[in-house]
Amino acid sequence: MSRLPSRVEVAIIGGGQAGLAASWHLRQRGIDHVVLERATAAHDWRDRRWDAFTLVTPNFQCRLPGFPYDGDEPDGFMTRAEVQAWLGRYRASFDPPLHEGVEVLGLRRADHGFTLRTSAGDLAAAQVVIATGGYHLPSVPAVGALLPEHVSQVHSADYRSPEALQDGAVLVVGSGQSGAQIAEDLHLAGRQVHLALGTAPRSARFYRGRDCIAWLEDMGVYDVTVQQHASGLAKRESTNHYMTGRDGGRDIDLRAFALQGLRLYGRLTGVRDGRPAFAPTLAEYLDHADSVMESIKTDIDRYIDRAGIVAPTEARYTPVWSPREEPAALDLDAAGITTVVWATGFRPDYRWVEVGVFDGAGHPTHHAGETDVPGLFFLGLPWLTTWGSGRFAGIAPDAAHVTERIAARARVAVSA
What we know:
20 strands; 7-stranded mixed sheet; globular; 20% strand; 8 helices; alpha/beta; FAD/NAD(P)-binding domain
């Protein structure tokens, strides 16, 4: 890439799928811009996914602006490497003005719009799109410091494979998408797994002859805005349903894993004398996850009936295992546990953004990506506008909206 200019109309910070999508739209409009990426384009797909990772969403939902899924398995699930290759082809399809290895160290307002302090020098921009995603710093509970020193601790962002861990049993903390899938990965590899559950819901992979995500897309679920949702803005903090795209896609049934020897626990509450302690929430969390899955099926049934769709019928889920007790603590050494995997999410890190657009928890405040600071936008956040915002399928409309607002501001500036 050429040398970083001193001034542009728009600076996009982040070279992942959201940043590239915004760049595509700006290219179409002929708006001068750059994309700044501190590492390499879409590097998170290489650096923060484990070896056996697959998308949870079907390939047909992979549709970026001007670039739908171009493979021959629309109902399949791309692997980590396949996602990287697909995004590489997207980048090549329109050659964005991408500057890799350029880190933005500071962003502040200026008379001309904004000043970006970068590792390659200062840059003036009339408008800025922050497309760095919402998952920045791995979050590890403070109680991790109380675990025995000989027990290794790994965050899900750094987990790669069962073989990369020490020999021995593994405690996975957290049952969201990453935690459930990593527990499955370890379990399938023959490792003894202990899993501390959270409140994550689950979904069936297939129901009544189709992938549940296909049904939900047809039902318009992914188009419901965060303002229309019953939970409102709080929905942005919700945990996604766990399922997997592995081996063609399937449910993740933790009860079935328990029958096969995987040990389940309630919520981790602390560590006492080196032993993790758990709340008696195991049965409650399992029941909750199942109830959400069944409620999704009920919604699908109603949609099928309303639309007069001919679809095969299917029996509802019957729990195959229920806990006889609620384990209160776990002796790591007695259980042979040598590693704890923290699947406890991430926290945002916008310390480099020296503009007051954040709430008390450090999350950006915006409406459909547009902040109250003229010319400053966010893109690529979960529930930016809809549930679909966190998926490849939802990035395109979000990017179209944000860049339309950018174009409108640029037109106003020119006319003024």
